[in-house]
Amino acid sequence: MIDETGVFLNPLVRRSWAVRGQTPVIGGDGGHRKKVSVIGALSMSPKARRLGLYFATRPDGFFTADAVVPFLRDLLTHLRGKVVVLWDGGSNHQGPLIRAFLQRNRRLALERLPAYAPDLNPVEVVWSWLKYGQLANYVPDGIKELDNEILDRLIELRCDPNLLRNLWDGSDLPFPHLRTG
Q1: For residues 18 and 80, what is the distance between their CA atoms, to the nearest angstrom?
Q2: How many domains, in total, are found in the chain?
Q3: Which DSSP category does 142 fall into?
Q4: Is the pTM of the predicted complex or chain greater than 0.70?
Q5: Considering only 5-14, 104-113, 144-153, which range has the smallest mean pLDDT?
Q6: DSSP-derived secondary structure for 76-102
Q7: What angle do CA 85, 87, 89 make, to 5 degrees?
Q8: Helices (DSSP H) in the chain: which residue ranges?
Q9: Predicted pLDDT of residue 159
Q10: For residue 75, what are the CA distances in angstroms to 6, 57, 59, 65, 131?
């Protein structure tokens, strides 16, 4: 599964606890749309059924097709054998650059998720965990600090197989089971 998201410099404000009578104040100027774009992939080893998390960021940038190709290339260096990628129908997932990359990398196959089905993509649950949980009410000093915080949180998640599995289970995509016989 592969998906992209953006995390804005201004905080995503969520309900919080505070001492009675002391309303929390969250900074941020509210006037700009600077963000860190993030691409992520959840992988599963077919034999061990172990989940992996791969990701990259683009501070104040976007993951167009010319940025998705290097991510796919990097993904192939970490994964063995045939790799099947499930993703949505975003424009950065198609076009001549992607087709040329697929022609050169026959062990990679792309499958499209049904239209308007983010509930079938466990990476969407990872983004929700990151933005609405880990980074809610977080006010960084700048785009570099936000990028570092995103990377730190995703590295911690990559090292927590139980949380990764729980996030997968938060999607509507069933976790594959081993076939016997």
Answers
A1: 49
A2: 1
A3: S
A4: yes
A5: 5-14
A6: HHHS-S-EEEEE---GGGSSHHHHHHH
A7: 135
A8: 65-78, 96-104, 122-128, 143-158, 161-169
A9: 95
A10: 20, 14, 20, 15, 24
Whether 163 has a pLDDT exceeding 90, the answer reads yes
Euclidean distance between CA atoms 92 and 4, whole angstroms: 10
Could you tell me if residue 168 is inside a domain? Answer: no
Range of the domain at 45: 2-7+34-163
**Crossing angle between the packed helical segments 96-104 and 65-78, to the nearest 10 degrees:** 20
Tokens of 125: 């649950």
Q: Give the C-alpha separation, 120 to 143, whole Å.
A: 31
3-state secondary structure of 163: helix
Q: What are phi and psi of 138, to 5 degrees?
A: -85, 130
**Whole-number pLDDT of residue 13:** 65
Alpha carbon distances (Å) from 114 to 17, 69, 121: 39, 22, 10
* CATH code of the domain covering residue 79: 3.30.420.10
Domain-located, residue 17: no
